[in-house]
Every structure is written in structure tokens, then in C-alpha cells.
Design goal:
The protein is an all-alpha fold. Helices cover 81% and strands 0% of the residues. It contains four helices and no strands. Keywords: Membrane, Transmembrane, Transmembrane helix.
Length: 117
């Protein structure tokens, strides 16, 4: 989870810089960062599913899996919308997607620890 939050924070800071400079998403280095975030989310999905299957803890399974899957889907959808709408609004949508991923990470942690089940 810490790696996902770190990558999300770095991408969000880069996105804020783009919004301030009124730039559309830049080329390969930025999308490489989003790709790394997506790979980390996919690994988290697999590890989360395996951990959920092997735990006796009181975890709301359907909600936990829904958060895992949705977190994986938010990044490519946000990136696609930012590429289609290549202005400040498109970049803003990407920032909202990254904020959503960060919020979902915190919620996943609370679900796993049983605080929000």
C-alpha cells in the first residue's frame, strides 16, 4: 500500500504542476509513472485477493474486492480522459482520478483492519 500511495502522490504532484502550467499530459516519462502505478495496483489486487482468501479476519469481502478492482480501473480511465481532453480540464480529471486512488487506498486499509467493515 505504501508504494501505491507514494506513486500516486508523485503522479498527483506532477499533475498539479501541469495544471498550474496549463499543460496537457506530457509524453513517455509521465505515462511511465502511471504505468508503474497501474502495475503496483495490479500486484495489490492479486495480493489482496490471495490474502482475503486466506484470512479468518472479519473483512467485508465484496466491498474489499470492489475497492481493489475499482482502484485498478480508475487510473487508465483517468489517463484516457486526459488524453482525449488535452487541456486543463482533462488534466484535472486525471488529478481527480489520482485522488480517488489515494482515497481508495486509505479505505482499503480501514476495511482490512476491520475499522470500516
Amino acid at each position: 500500500m505504501a508504494l501505491v500511495l507514494l506513486l500516486t502522490t508523485v503522479a498527483a504532484v506532477a499533475t498539479v504542476v501541469m495544471i498550474v502550467r496549463d499543460q496537457s499530459p506530457p509524453g513517455d516519462p509521465y505515462f511511465l509513472l502511471l504505468g508503474l502505478l497501474l502495475v503496483a495496483l495490479l500486484v495489490q489486487l492479486v495480493v489482496g485477493l490471495v490474502s482475503l482468501a486466506g484470512t479468518d479476519a472479519d473483512v467485508e469481502g465484496v466491498t474489499f474486492v470492489a475497492y481493489l478492482v475499482t482502484a485498478v480501473l480508475v487510473v487508465p480511465v483517468g489517463a484516457a480522459l486526459a488524453l482525449v481532453e488535452r487541456n486543463r480540464w482533462g488534466t484535472g480529471v486525471l488529478l481527480v482520478a489520482l485522488a480517488t486512488v489515494a482515497a481508495m487506498q486509505l479505505r482499503l486499509d480501514s476495511l482490512w483492519s476491520g475499522a470500516g467493515a
